[in-house]
Amino acid sequence: MTKMLCLRVNPASFRLLLMSQKLVGAFTMPSNATHLEAYDTTNEFLVMQKSQVRSHFTTDFNLNYFNNNENTVPKDITNMSVEDIDNLLKKLLQNNNTKAAVKVIKKCTESKRIISAATVKEIFRSVSIAGHVDSVLVLLSYVEKVNPNLYRRNGQFIHYLAKAQCMKGNSDKGLSILKGAYEKYEGLRNFYRIILRELIQDSVLNRSEASVVTFKKYVLEFSEEWKDHYPLVCFWHICWCSDWFSDQMLSNELLETSEALRSIVKERSLVFSANILREFNEDAVVRMLQTLLKYKMMEEYVKVLQVLFAYKLRNKDLKGCTEIVKNCEMLGIALPSKQQGSYIKMLIDREEPSDSPTKSKTFKLQF
After folding, report:
1. Are 293 and 287 in contact (CB under 8 A)?
2. Domain 66-153 has CATH 1.25.40
3. Chain centroid, CA 8 distance in Å
């Protein structure tokens, strides 16, 4: 009886066997092939395999994968110059390799190696905008230990920690830190105002409702405690310009809450309106007129209305001009004779330009 031998083959070994057969087939030469032909065929096969491996390698492994590896951080930086350390850190930041940059900063702290002030500030800006609170803390520790003079001159760089917290979503914590720095370092308050303005813009434009409520609380505190109304005006202005109804309502709430804000808006209403018309935002100017009328600021109301009427004349918006004239009659307001003459001329000519810079829309003042 014939005995049958059963072998259990490992799948991996089986695939290796098939690959070997293919390789043998690829290298099999005709019986009449010369040694030169065999060499050419073999060489062609190797080149083909090499190109395939290279193409797969290029596709599957981007060079940045290796650039971002922590192994790019030198083991010893004690012999590196300030310029070399700066260049290394900048390169890591350009490659978005914050983890490796932090590792270098820790090594600089341990070995007391100097990083230039310009590079320190550049790293602070980069990691704070990204909301990397831990990275900011590492850099704060470095500056405090290695360059204490720079640390003191810049208010302990605490504003970057505040910014990082806000960008991470911890607005209340971030603004609390910034408020403490504002109170402690009077000489840096102008800089803190700029930081606060940037944070306000980011909060409102990114539609973070929770952050907006927090910012409202703090800008009112700055205004009431230190009589610093700049953050409040910035917050009101961006809400007033916004196309979102909720922001517009918030701007009205701020005006009702703060007498100081009402006084500033009254004084600067003409400038605010003229500037916003350069952005073709007529709706914001109409809201300004409504506010001025609500608080009986008639002198400022007339000035803003004249600016809006001039804008309508320049764009040859007959409907808009007519609406303004009707409302002037209702309120007993007289427009300048020059503007009246231009309006009458346009009314007679009834010219509707085709090259108007803005598309004419239905316009109506609401009171």
Report:
1. no
2. yes
3. 62
Joined together, the tokens standing for residue 350 give 């009834």
User: What one-character-per-residue DSSP string does 315-352 give?
Assistant: TT-HHHHHHHHHHHHHHT----HHHHHHHHHHHHHT--
d(CA 33, CA 29): 6
Q: Which of 27, 55, 61 is nearest to 43 (CA)?
A: 27
Residue whose C-alpha is closest to residue 361's, from 325, 312, 288, 295: 312
Length of the chain measured in residues: 367
Is the separation of the CB atoms in 181 and 188 below 8 Å? yes
Find where tokens 């007339």 sit.
Answer: 302
CA distance between the termini of the chain: 111
φ and ψ at residue 4, rounded to 5 degrees: -100, 130
Position 42 pLDDT exceeds 60: no
Decide: 159 and 192 in contact? Cβ < 8 Å.
yes
Residue 27 · residue 42 · CB < 8 Å: yes
Residue 139's contacts (CB-CB under 8 Å, 6 or more residues apart) are 105, 120, 123, 124, 127, 157
Per the prediction, the chain carries an average pLDDT of: 83
What is the Cα–Cα distance from 24 to 22, expressed in whole angstroms? 5
pLDDT digits (tens, 9 = 90+) for 122-178: 999 999 999 999 999 999 999 999 999 999 999 999 999 999 999 999 999 999 999
Q: List pLDDT tens digits, range 301-340.
A: 999 999 999 999 999 999 999 999 999 999 999 999 999 9
